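Weekly structure sync, notes
Attendees: PL, DS, HV (note-taker this week)

Item 1: Fatty acid desaturase family protein
DS walked through the input record. Source organism listed as Actinokineospora soli. Sequence as pasted into the shared doc:
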Amino acid sequence: MAPRLTPEQFAALGRDLDDLRQRVLADLGEEDRKYIYDVVKAQRLLEVAGRGLLFFGFLPPAWLAGVGALSLSKILDNMEIGHNVMHGQYDWMRDPALNSRMFEWDTVAPAENWKHSHNYVHHTYTNILGKDRDIGYGILRMDTDQKWNPYYLGNPVYAALLAIFFQWGVMLHDVEAEKLVSGEKKWSETAAVRKRMWHKGIKQVVKDYALFPALTGPLFIPTLLGNATANLVRNVWAFAIIFCGHFPAGVESFTEEETENETRGEWYYRQMLGSANITGGPLFHIMSGNLSHQIEHHLFPDIPARRYPQIAPEVRAICAKYGLPYNTGGLTKQLTSVFSKIVRLALPTRSPRTPGGTVDGDRARRAA
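Item 1 (cont.): predicted structure, written out as tokens:
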């Protein structure tokens, strides 16, 4: 059970984490610059290799190698480059190609829409029910305090479809379909969002499923299937990493009342309790965009993600200092926990909030 800290402890927690953040920012320099340039170079080489190998797609080994290289390229572009660059992690470099306001990634979701729904809404209201739309993405029931209705019996099916078509789910996220259905929002209010979606979606579909396949001439169909497979691999991987960082057992949610007039220390507290990490080696962390360190990312979204493994021991020590849990585990453990929750919450189960107790057996609740 996560303890409710005193005002003095919250203030001290805020100072400890602010100090850690400032020390990292003050240390940014050539190694960070070289790192991101190396990742961009690797991503581009993998894309060139993948698309080149698809010209020999009539040979099964070449097709498989091409799809593998293209899949890795798309994962790097999405996770370690796109996500992190658009958080402003490399704005200090003053390189237009890596500037958060100018960067556009290799996915159907327009950068401008994503930065609103993710950088602003999600990172401001992390795990606040009714405010953070990433809790279930407007599709799934991922918390016992989300009111159940028969629609949620399809929870496992919706989750599988979201994983397969994840880039499309991210693209549609900023339309806020659930608010359109409830009448909270008018269709006309989504005009600008829909315009950006339309332009980016068409451009991406033409590139992946018309232009590049056409360049391979008689191998149009194998190339189209290769591009579709690479997108599928990237989608499922991104879904798995993101859900493991947000929804395994032990991750807490919060009410608007609990977070009203939140101090800096209380904001940090919410980020720590509302996140989970995934253990793994250096390559695993790179391919996850270092979102395998979701706790550190939620605490410091604008710090270059390559720094998260370095500061993780100190963050863990700060958690221990204040008696707070540090939720971490292997990919298999976290995935199993997430899918168990998806299946369990498809049913009309609900446990009342118990001050200082637990909810649904997997979420510690703070004392009021």
